Fold this protein.
Amino acid sequence: GDSVTQMEGPVTLSEEAFLTINCTYTATGYPSLFWYVQYPGEGLQLLLKATKADDKGSNKGFEATYRKETTSFHLEKGSVQVSDSAVYFCALSGAAGNKLTFGGGTRVLVKP
Amino acid sequence: GAGVSQTPSNKVTEKGKYVELRCDPISGHTALYWYRQSLGQGPEFLIYFQGTGAADDSGLPNDRFFAVRPEGSVSTLKIQRTERGDSAVYLCASSLMGGPNTGELFFGEGSRLTVL
């Protein structure tokens, strides 16, 4: 079945540092890929998505590129802020498109 | 409010009891999802409604879990004979139409269930 694996946290960074969160997936066919973010005390929110190979999703300074050859969708941000402290979830939607399959989440803490 | 609303936000119950968790989706959203999130893990799919019908209930772990959406809006997740392993945050999400490939899912803040 479909699955998503992402790096375990917590990841602790200083403000303005570069952030990478690795995500790889297993799926049949051509899934759509997503990053969701959960800020403290809030519900999950869509951060960005990509629906086909080589697509790049971007939002709020975050980027991720759909790499079919390596089955990866790594999240990157060039200069993090304290407000980026949150839990980040990689997810996929398979061929049926009925549901999201999530990774385990990566907690990111940005210190001033 | 305009977002997905879930009640109660916290529920503590004893092993063996029956619980109901309610989800009020964004007005006009036809698709509704229930997920379960255990501590330190990602959300796990339970069930997906399109309108009043369950389009995919493959994630319900056993027959103690049941969900309804009788009028195509509010949904209730029902858990019978609760067990300690049912303790988790239960998340609800809605989207305007169809699955995540066709529209963004909007999540509520969840109902935290603790079974003693």
About this structure: The CA atoms of residues 42 and 86 of chain A lie 10 Å apart. The mean pLDDT of chain A is 94.
